Amino acid sequence: MKRGLVWFVAAALLPVLPAAAQDRSMAPDWITASNQPCKIWNPSPQPNESVTWSGGCKDGLASGRGVLRWTENGKPDAQFDGEYANGKRNGPGVLTLPDGRRQSGVWANDEEVPFRSGTI
User: Fold this and answer.
1) What is the spatial distance between Cα 74 and Cα 50, in angstroms, rounded to a whole number?
2) Where are the alpha helices (DSSP H) in 1-120?
3) Tally of CB atoms within 10 A around 87
4) What gap in Å lies between CA 109 and CA 56, rounded to an integer?
5) Where are the domains of the chain?
6) Phi-psi group of 110: left, alpha or beta (phi > 0 → left; psi -120 to 50 → alpha; rest → beta)
């Protein structure tokens, strides 16, 4: 009976193992734009991704207003149209996801600032 249970558990886990083995999560790091020598903060690096930046570059880091376009495996991915400072999203911007959903917000040090409603 125990042998049957072990076999059942092993068979149930088999489809999960390849997905776990393919998880290639990498630590956050800098990525250099493919169209200019400008670095951008990459909070969740993925294999086979690249980025282009249309804005300025100060001290080797994305700065000012511009459009950042990500590609993964040669296909368009997310896009951010907004402000950068020191290579990170800083200020107002619009994030467009690959499925077309858009998220407007304000970012500080590459983190979206939560909206707080209140009275004036």
Assistant:
1) 8
2) 2-13, 16-22
3) 22
4) 17
5) 26-112
6) left
- Across 92-108, average pLDDT: 96
**Tokens 């630590």 map to which residue?**
27
> C-alpha angle 46/51/57, rounded to 5°?
130
AA letter at 108: A
Give the span between the Cα atoms of 89 and 51, in whole angstroms.
Answer: 14
* Predicted TM-score of the model (pTM): 0.74
Q: How far apart are CA 76 and CA 52, in angstroms?
A: 11
Beta bridge partners, 103, equal 95
Convert the pLDDT of each residue in 53-96 to its tens digit.
999 999 999 999 999 999 999 999 999 999 999 999 999 999 99
